[in-house]
Amino acid sequence: MSVSEAEHHQNPIRFGILGCARISHKFCRAISLLPSGTATISSISSRSLDKARQFAASARLHSSVKLLSPYDALLEDTSVDAVYVPLPTSHHATWAIAAAAKGKHVLIEKPAALCLEELERILEACAKNRVVFMDGAMWLHHPRTTEMRRLIDDPGRIGRLRLIHTSCSFLATPEFLQNDIRVKPNLDSLGALGDLGWYCIGSILWATNYNLPKTVVASPSLSLNQSGEILSCGASLYWDDGLVATLNCSFLSHVSTDLSIHGSQGTLLVRDLVIPYHEDGASFEVISGAHFAELHISWTKKPEEVVVKAPLRQEALMVLEFAKEVKLVRDKKSEPSLKWADISRKTQLVLDAVKKSIDQKFEPINL
């Protein structure tokens, strides 16, 4: 290894965490799983130092991690290369834009913003200050996703896409439905649509290689709480070539993260898309060229289970990908990739259309 390569390897991306949300523990664990020299936690900030101390203790952070308050103090910290933003969605634009203005790369939890206009302002700030942007959709970084992509693109396996369906749900506790930030209009006005619908819409667009639908229509089957927050909703998406996609997201039904992709020649099915059943690998089913057997008493083929091992947990793979992008900008003076920003933008665009259809009494929205 050359001297420059050794320096690059031993020069990890230094993260600051804006806030002590519960998911920040998962982020800290992801950092701990990465190869040495990839990334480290430099600072964590909270609205109170006491809360930062409690978080640092519960997450077993190294004593060298700086505990800061308020959030602005972290943005002024010159030892921070990138920020992880797990704050309520209503705070994303304010702090992501402020971080970018200070030259900090931005890894932000999903949903990326409350609306496309907010997201565009975040992305504009990132582009202006040459910093990397990525949202926290971890499943995109799992090797299973790469293998599914390969099979979908294989002309002999799935064929022309005809129907996609996805669901993402969990049965929320009474305490969640009363107190969680995701059911508070002043903190996250998108409710289940933002929290879970981001995955549904993202996976549909991923399946189509981010080819946007022509029309979006929300389903009248809608559940709201007393504050008007979305607890459960659905939508249908339509393309000019006849492709149809449906999605359902809910805080009111049993846990699910399903994705089924049906083409002219085959079907791909995954039951644990967002969070795999097992950390060290994941699987999906695929079946091609099947028919009903004589007398329609069985099938001519059975689904094949494809198992994909994961060298790292998907959240660690996400941070690894982000760190690689940041190192290219920092060390090689490369321009930040627009790949992840474009994915977030298209996801937000369709999410906005679903919300607009809901607000307009389920009228079709043309994109």
From TrEMBL:
Q: Which is a Pfam family this sequence falls into?
A: GFO_IDH_MocA
Q: Name one GO molecular function term.
A: nucleotide binding
Alphabetical list of InterPro entries matching this protein: Gfo/Idh/MocA-like_OxRdtase_N (IPR000683), GFO_IDH_MocA-like_dom (IPR055170), NAD(P)-bd_dom_sf (IPR036291)
- Domain GFO/IDH/MocA-like oxidoreductase intervals: 147-268
The Gfo/Idh/MocA-like oxidoreductase N-terminal domain is annotated at 13-134
Family recorded in the similarity comment: Belongs to the Gfo/Idh/MocA family.
**Protein name according to UniProt:** Oxidoreductase
